[in-house]
Amino acid sequence: MKDRKVFVAASASFLGYFILLYFVIYAMGQAGWLPFRLLSILKPGTALANLVKFCTFFMVLRITQRITWVGLTYGLGAGLLSVPRLMVGNVLNGLATFRALKVFSDSRSGKAAVRWDNTQHLEGIGDMGGEDRTKRKVVVQVVPLDQVIAGLISGNPDEIVKSLRNIPSQVDDLERAEIIAYIRPLVSSESLKVRAALAQTLGTLIWRELTPTLFHMLSDEDNVVRMNAARALVERPKVGALLEQAFISQGPRAVETLVRVIEMDRKRQRQLFDLIGRENLTVTKTTIIMSSPILRKRYAKYLESQTIDPGTSVAAVQMEPPAIEPAPAKSEAFVHLP
Predict the structure, then answer these.
(1) Cα gap 31→142, rounded to integer Å
(2) Measured distance CA(312)–CA(320) in Å, rounded
(3) pLDDT at 120
(4) Is residue 141's pLDDT more than 80?
(5) Can you tell me the distance from the alpha carbon of 192 to that of 227, in angstroms, rounded to the nearest whole number?
(6) Helix/strand/coil (H, E, C) string of the chain?
(7) Inter-residue contact 183 to 194 (CB < 8 Å)
């Protein structure tokens, strides 16, 4: 039933827009904006009218939730745009449902074999998966360096993204300097696709010269780029020192993005909590505890599992985070960052 209900739900949502259009024309006619009036669909007090009110209430509630949570994650603009995206999604789902029913019907009647359409995806752009995401091994095709550089300077966003993914990590010093000289200007690209791909590429190119570029991308105006840059930063070696520097030197948007990325990855949190004790990351500890109730609670639970001074209570960790210094005990269950 759960698998079959989508056909009813998606079809009803799609057909409901025709009813909505009828109601809009009806309301415009009642207001005198049109030279004609349509017949009323609903009669006040009837079961159908009450059902529509009931459904409308939950529709408004759902839209409010989408605006609230999308806005908190991506900003108010993206939150407001989630409403038209909801309508577009319903239309696409409805059309896809009718398409699926036709394909299935043709297969049952012997007209044609089942053949589903696949959408095209550009991997990595806006990837925000946490620790539960499936790690897939991708076969990387070796591309000549001259071809990679030609793509980087082509001016075509698709070619630039493709070249960024084909940059070899093992090159000599001269080639490395040449690649860096070509990719640094891309931080100012007008294409969101290019900047997002560059931020992700910086997570695989562990070159010290690119650290300032990565820090610059943490302050990008687009949240997708900042999220990719934050994920790239926490994947780099000596992440403790990098986080300490980022929390000191970066602005509020970059700090908030880093905290969000850490919130989404429990495994990374445990590694970071261990680094806080081993490397005395005072600024990092204070920032994540004061900025995130989620991380504050998880840090308190982490301290409970470690050897803590008997005079230190978990309540003190929550109330006065800067004053707490956990004992530098190691746990073999955690994988320590380099």
Answers:
(1) 66
(2) 11
(3) 55
(4) no
(5) 13
(6) CCCCHHHHHHHHHHHHHHHHHHHHHHHHHHCCCCCCCCCCCCCCCCHHHHHHHHHHHHHHHHHHHHHHHHHHHHCHHHHHHHHHHHHHHHHHHHHHHHHHHHHHHHHHCCCCCCCCCCCCCCCCCCCCCCCCCCCCCCCCCCCCHHHHHHHHCCCCHHHHHHHHHCCCCCCCHHHHHHHHHHHHHHHHCCCHHHHHHHHHHCCCCCCHHHHHHHHHHCCCCCHHHHHHHHHHHHCCCCHHHHHHHHHHHCCHHHHHHHHHHHHCCHHHHHHHHHHHHHHCCHHHHHHHHHHCHHHHHHHHHHHHCCCCCCCCCHHHHHHCHHHCCCCCCCCCCCCCCC
(7) no
Residue 93, amino acid: N
Cβ 187 vs Cβ 228: under 8 Å: no
Residue type, 177: A
Could you tell me how far CA 65 lies from the centroid of its own chain? 17
pLDDT at 67: 95
Hey, what amino acid is at 50?
A: N
Segment among 28-37, 179-188, 308-317 with least mean pLDDT: 308-317
Place of tokens 């780029």: 225
Record the tokens describing residue 331, joined without a space. 């746990």
Q: Judge contact between 246 and 255, C-beta under 8 A.
A: yes
- Residue-averaged pLDDT of the chain: 80
Query: pTM of whole model > 0.90?
Result: no
Contacts of 144 (CB under 8 A, 6+ apart): none
The residue to which tokens 């591309």 are assigned? 143
What's the confidence (pLDDT) of residue 51? Answer: 92
The ranges assigned to domains in the chain are: 5-108, 120-128+136-236, 237-338
Place of tokens 């989508």: 6
CA distances 134 to 23, 199, 225, 236, 257, Å, are: 46, 20, 21, 20, 22
Question: What does the alpha-carbon distance between residue 263 and residue 8 come to, in Å, rounded to a whole number?
Answer: 37
pLDDT-derived band of residue 28, with 50, 70 and 90 as boundaries?
very high
